[in-house]
Design a protein that fits this description.
The chain is of the alpha/beta class. It is about 25% helix and about 25% strand. The termini are close together. The mean pLDDT is about 90. It has six helices and twelve strands. Helix 5 links the parallel strand 10 and strand 11. Helix 1 packs parallel to helix 6, helix 2 packs across helix 3 and helix 4 packs across helix 5.
């Protein structure tokens, strides 16, 4: 890479934190990391960090110009489709190098009882025959389950949230992964959970809940990933970092 390559890292994942830690220390890389600001207590990042988003395509284009960005590394969450669509489109129009870090999705294996639904909106109707539900979908998605009655919800997210569906009971847990399989098994057993609801986020931090459901022979309502543009993609942190070490 040429001296002082200016890089925008779009964060929001554990892998983004790992990329941030390395690129910030690389000689010849000038790094800016952005966060959407949805998490009040984000993971610790190094160097210059901007929060709150860019205000759409025009805002991002202006930011790239003002900071003379030459590379955009999109390591946002697999379900943050909007920022990926915007960043890919703006970079293509401005002829700025763009790479998407996309961790592989989880794959069902022997013993898994997955019920796949295309979007979060289809997850709630799929719970009709279940009474005790572990919602592990993030606090911003809980509203999609607010109209369900006669349920017990075990809801977990990094941030505190008010989720009080009329006609159902909720126990909220505030916690951040990575989680251990034995702890997840104990959690599901303790609350007599009969179904797990999850996004197919991939990665290791929250995979233990999937293994726990498999171990306990519980069904998982698995929400498919959103469709994102076909872009240059890397699947490992090491490959992303290698781009800027060569």
């Amino acid at each position: 890479m040429n001296d002082q390559t200016r890089v925008l890292l779009i964060g929001g994942t554990e892998e983004a934190r790992l990329v941030n830690a390395v690129l910030e220390e690389l000689e010849g890389v000038k790094l800016v990391t952005s966060l959407a600001g949805r998490t009040e207590i984000p993971a610790e990042l190094k160097g210059l960090v901007v929060t709150g988003g860019f205000g759409g395509a025009d805002g991002l284009a202006g930011f790239l110009d003002e900071n003379n960005i030459q590379w955009v590394v999109d390591a946002s969450h697999p379900y943050a489709a909007k920022i990926t669509q915007t960043a890919a489109s703006v970079c293509r129009a401005k002829e700025i190098s763009y790479i998407r870090f996309q961790r592989p999705p989880w794959e069902a294996t022997t013993g898994d009882q997955w019920i796949s639904v295309p979007t979060i909106m289809e997850a709630a109707p799929a719970l009709a025959e279940y009474a005790r539900v572990f919602l592990s979908v993030g606090r911003q998605e809980l509203e999609h389950f607010a109209d369900l009655t006669d349920k017990f919800f075990l809801a977990r997210s990094i941030e505190k949230v008010i989720f009080e569906p009329v006609g159902s009971k909720t126990l909220f847990i505030q916690d951040r992964g990575p989680f251990k399989m034995d702890d997840e098994i104990a959690l599901l057993q303790r609350h007599q959970v009969d179904v797990v609801v999850s996004k197919n986020s991939g990665g290791a931090a929250t995979f233990a809940k999937i293994v726990a459901a498999r171990t306990l022979q519980l069904p998982v309502i698995m929400i498919d990933r959103p469709i994102v543009p076909k872009v240059s993609t890397l699947a490992t942190v090491e490959d992303v970092i290698a781009l800027f070490r060569s």
